[in-house]
Design brief:
Shape: globular
Number of strands: 11
Oligomer: single chain
Order of helices and strands: HHHEEEEEHEEEEEE
Radius of gyration: 19 Å
Number of helices: 4
Distance between the termini: 22 Å
Length: about 250
């Protein structure tokens, strides 16, 4: 255990000063993700810093992913139930159909009644995440804007990703790339992460730091201390086959 990621080169990391600045902003916003303009400003500021001279530019998606990761780490989930296995694509009705059925509905646009946004289907309370076709990473869904049904029978939705603008909207296959939002694991839930499990994992690569699907291949159980879970997990990312050893804080399920 302890080897570096198999992606080649040095993994992307925010500097201590950058992390401290983002942490202070997160606290200032009461654990809310900053607006898109603020995220862009941070990415531009970090890229222009002397410490990053000659290095790859910091992308807004990386800044947003950091805030998302920290935000969920800070969030208290006293009402959370047992760990839900990955593969929770969409809730199903008793007749076996997706509860968010598109078969009887023509392609149309949603008109939210408020600017706060709602990523729940048909007034439900579930929150969702979607897989981007651009980079293969998973992002929280802020809004479902439109829907359509192809002749193949596969429904698609046009989504607005949380923290991003209209230019980042995408048409997403509902059956394959939309599912109930994953949540970080509590320290007491590490025992539920087992070899063979499909998880969502925060991958810090050479030029990106995003959430991707990964398969757990091995676990190293350690005694917990005041900092929480100290276990480590060997994972293999589905999108590129690379392997990495990660702590529980990078795991969502």
């Amino acid at each position: 255990m302890g080897r570096t990621p198999a992606t080649g080169g040095t993994a992307f990391r925010f500097t201590q000063a950058e992390a401290a600045e983002m942490e202070a902003l997160l606290q200032q916003l009461n654990n809310a993700i900053p607006h898109r303009a603020a995220i862009q400003d941070l990415a531009d500021k970090f890229t222009a810093s002397a410490e990053r001279a000659g290095k790859v530019a910091v992308q807004p998606k990386q800044v947003w992913s950091w805030f998302q990761n920290r935000r969920y780490s800070h969030r208290t989930r006293n009402t959370r139930g047992p760990l839900v296995p990955q593969g929770k694509i969409l809730p199903m009705r008793s007749d076996g159909q997706n509860s968010a059925s598109f078969r009887a509905m023509p392609s149309s646009s949603a008109h939210p009644s408020s600017s706060s946004g709602n990523n729940s289907f048909e007034g439900g309370q579930l929150e969702f995440e979607a897989k981007s076709a651009i980079d293969g990473a998973w992002y929280d869904v802020a809004l479902f804007l439109s829907h359509r049904l192809f002749e193949s029978g596969d429904p698609e939705v046009r989504v607005r990703f949380s923290g991003f603008g209209i230019e980042e909207d995408e048409w997403i296959n509902v059956r394959k790339c939309v599912r109930q939002r994953s949540l970080p694991c509590e320290s007491t839930e590490c025992a539920a992460v087992l070899p063979g499990d499909l998880i969502l994992c925060f991958q810090e690569g050479k030029e990106q730091a995003l959430y991707f699907d990964a398969r757990v291949h091995d676990t190293q159980r350690r005694h917990h201390d005041v900092r929480g879970c100290r276990c480590r997990f060997l994972v293999r990312y589905v999108h590129d086959g690379s392997e990495e050893i990660v702590p529980l804080r990078k795991v969502r399920a």
